[in-house]
Structure prediction request, 435 residues.
Amino acid sequence: MPAQHGPDRPDGPLPSEWLILADDLTGAADCAIAFARRGLGAAVGWHAAPAGDGAMAAFPVLAIDADSRRLLPEAAAARHAALLRRHLSGRAHPALIKKIDSTLRGQPAAELAATLAALREMGRGRLALLAPAFPATGRTTEGGHVHLEGVRLDSTALWARDHSYDSADLLVVLASAGLKARLLPLERVRKQPSALAAALHAAHAERLDALVCDAVEVADLDNLARASLPLAENVLWVGSGGIAAALAAALPAATGVPPPALPRRPGGVLVVVGSVAEASRAAAAALAGTGVPRFAIPAELLRAGEGDPRWRPLGREIAAAIAAGRDTLVEIAADPAAELRQGAALAEALALLLAPAASRMGGLFATGGETACALLSRLGVHGIHLLEEVEPGVPLGLTLGALQVPVMTKAGAFGRNTTILRSLARLHHLLGAPS
Prediction:
């Protein structure tokens, strides 16, 4: 039986099933792993997985990667609406989370508008609680504006490099998709949960599309989670790993089935770094410093494909290192000429190159969700059963599908120099092998 609610737990019935729609794989896993930490069975899958998969449907927490960050608004919206309809079938009253990037990359407004419209068409209309803050990573929301380390997001170098909107004013962003929204300022977010819940009820009765929720501390998200959890059938949480962690923490811990043992396979761990972010490159350099085999794959080779004479010899060399039981680092070499929109094509080409090696690997560590999804899909994998978080933002799971292998994923733009090293050490420990 679930534990009884303590004084910090919300009153009223709590959801037992969760559906999370995300715009990328690492974000989907970041949200779902928060629930796995509470003892709930959690899995992440992707939009191209076969329909009607009973194994995926059996998990009380299911996160789906829509892989929509690089799509145009109309395509991203259509994909989210289709995934929602598909995965709500068979789930009577799941709590819903729409995961977005905490720095507003991609098409969060168009995706949210399509999700809300699809819910209304299905007779499940909900109020969106937009809370993208992730204080643990320096992302906050103040006065309805996203801030990064205290600076308005639209004034940062990150925004200048990659953004979809003219400003980081969330009310303006929502209005651009035709959504009627109002700000829930910090002083109201910090009210007693009962008073905050009354404000949420009023906004729902007013038929607003969304409330933009300020949050500058973890406690602000915790308060929002406790107030809104009993209203799960009437709200849609929209945010990043911060709100997911707050919602999971407000649930009673579950005592479920013990997680499965990780299978031991003879190959080494394949470490794939598809991100050009500095944090990922620094972690890869630290791993390379230990003497592991290192392969830097030029982007122009991936664009050329199998016709390039270097392709097959390089693939065989990587496969040989993995088959010999050696952890092996593969990177897409930094290419200043490569544009962001080329990422999907490069990930698919890299997956094709690495498929022979990956079929022999004892485990996978992938930085960049697009890369991991492309590679695993090519191997007949359609999802990941999440088991634990080896480091903040680095979930460990077991693949579901034709190949069973432990896998760890990490978003490209965060982490420490030691993240890959420490994650590999944890995996080797769990496998009972020397690191």
Notes: The chain is about 35% helix and 20% strand.
